[in-house]
Design brief:
Elements lengths: L1 H10 L1 H28 L1 H22 L1
Keywords: Membrane, Transmembrane, Transmembrane helix
Length: about 60
């Protein structure tokens, strides 16, 4: 199992850089969009955060 995993790591070593670069570009675009939204409509984002907190608290209660 571990040998197979190491082999996969060696195989995926080069594409990892490309995927990492792609992730960084996507993340920066996402941050930019988020920042623009934050400037435009703070209330919607605030309500969205509240919704996330509400659902996470419900999940936490169920998990406990």
């Amino acid at each position: 199992m571990s040998k197979l995993y190491q082999l996969n790591c060696v195989k995926k070593n080069k594409p990892l850089n490309i995927s990492l670069l792609f992730f960084i570009i996507t993340f920066s675009i996402f941050i930019d969009i988020l920042f623009n939204l934050l400037k435009k409509n703070l209330f919607i984002i605030f309500s969205y955060i509240c919704l996330i907190l509400k659902t996470s608290s419900v999940n936490f209660r169920n998990w406990r």
